[in-house]
Write a structure and sequence with these properties.
By secondary structure, the chain is of the alpha/beta class. It has 8 helices and 7 strands, in the order βααβαβααββββααα. Strands 1, 2, 3, 4, 5, 6 and 7 form a 7-stranded mixed sheet that branches. Helix 6 runs antiparallel to helix 7 and helix 7 packs across helix 8. The chain is globular and about 40 Å long. It starts with 5 loop residues before the first strand and ends in a 10-residue tail after the last helix. 37% of the residues are buried.
């Protein structure tokens, strides 16, 4: 961790095995010793562990985390927080998330709590936005209409990469979030699991027209 500025890990890693969970803890401790910012994508995977096992491992690891990223399902299954919103019914009103964002930030002392908000109209047509909370203010991104989706795989990772880049290089949490949402929206128009776009392309979309239509 010496010389690093950021350490990012995913909830998939500690789910692989007990040894992987211990290694994740040791890595987080090393990051903290070196003053490295730590972020997590909660990323619950039901084929790897139960919600009970996940919470027994993930909740103690949160004391090392500065930036928590995860959708509503991840927050509930990994940490036990459920938003006041009908997510299954497609309701993604950010107001329903503010309560759990505040509760998570208060319990775990997160610097930022971040969630993507997906509206699923069909397998190839989604609405896409996100929200961030810095302990004082909420910021909700503009909404993108992704139609057609070419490949959802890598959408979450491209969002995490985008928010890390944004928080490291941009002056406000709002600008960082807009960059991350634009990056992940573009990724979902690209086949494969890698985001083949440039920073300038992401910034062009993030700063573009407010209709949020993704075109390539």
């Amino acid at each position: 961790m010496e010389g690093a500025s950021w350490f990012h890990w995913s909830g998939i890693t500690p789910a692989i095995s007990d040894k992987a969970a211990e290694l994740t803890r040791l890595a987080c401790e090393a990051a903290k010793r070196h003053g490295v910012k730590v972020s997590v994508d909660l990323n619950f995977r039901k084929k790897l562990w139960t919600k009970e096992k996940a919470q027994s491992i993930m909740r103690p690891l949160m004391k090392y985390v500065d930036v928590c990223i995860g959708n509503e399902e991840d927050a509930e299954l990994c940490l036990g927080f459920k938003p006041d919103a009908d997510v299954e019914g497609g309701e993604t009103n950010a107001e329903g998330y503010k309560g759990i964002f505040k509760a998570m930030a208060e319990e775990f002392n997160f610097e930022y709590v971040i969630s993507t908000l997906r509206e699923s109209f069909s397998a190839t047509h989604n609405g896409w936005k996100a929200m961030i909370y810095n302990g004082k203010e909420f910021y909700e991104s503009k909404r993108y209409d992704i139609n057609p989706i070419i490949d959802r795989v890598g959408g979450g990772d491209s969002f995490s990469g985008g928010i890390i880049y944004g928080l490291l290089t941009m002056p406000t949490q709002g600008e960082a979030l807009e960059f991350a949402v634009a990056a992940s929206a573009l990724k979902q128009t690209i086949p494969g699991d890698f985001n083949l776009v440039t920073v300038d392309e992401v910034k062009a979309l993030a700063g573009g027209s407010a209709n949020g239509r993704v075109q390539r």
